[in-house]
Amino acid sequence: MIILKAEITGFGKYHGQQFHFDRGNQLLFGQNEIGKSTLYQFIAAMLFGFPKKTAKKKDYTPRNGAAYGGKLWLEIEPYGEIVIERYRQIDRGRGKVYVNGQITDEAWLEQHVQPLNRTLFFDVFTFQQEQLNQIDKLGEEELHQSLISLGITGSQNMLQQVARLGTSNQQLYKPRGQKLPLNQALKQLGKLQQQIADKESEEAHLQHQYQQIAFIQSDIDSLQARSQSLNDAYQENQQRISHWALYEEWQRIAAVPVADPEQAQAIKSFYQTYQQITEELRKKEAELDQLEQGQGSDKYFFYLDHEQPIDHLLQQQVEIARLADRQAAADAKRSHAIQQLNQLVTKRQWRSESPPFLTAPIREALQSLDQLKARAGEIERRQQWLAEKASPLEATVSRLEHQQPALGGTQKKHTGLRLLMAIGLILVVLGFFTGPWQWVISGAGAILLISGLVLSQKRPKNQQQNKQEWQAALLQLDLIEEEQAELRQEAQQQQQSIQRKTQGLLPFFGQLPHEEWSDYLDAYEADVAAYQHYLEEEAEASQVRQTVSEALAPFDVLFQPYTDWLPLQNKSITDKLTVLTAFAKDMQAIKLTRLQQPSTLLAQQLTRLRKEREDIVADAKELLQQQGLEQPAEISLWLKQWESAQRTNRRAAELQAMLTPIFPEAVDEAALIQEKERLKTSQVRVQEDIRALTEDRQKLELEVAASQRNGTLNQLYQEESELRSAIQELAVTWGSRQLAAAILRDITTELSEQQLPQLLTAASTYFAQLTNGQYQQILFEEGLLTVASQSDTYSIIDLSTGTKDQLIMAIRFGYLSLQKNQPISPIIIDDGWLHYDSARKESLVRLLTEFGQRYQVICLSSDQEMVSYYQKYQQSVYDLSKGCEYLVDRQITQ
Question: Environment class of residue 192 by beta-carbon count within 10 Å: exposed (0-12), middle (13-18) or buried (19+)?
Answer without folding.
Answer: middle
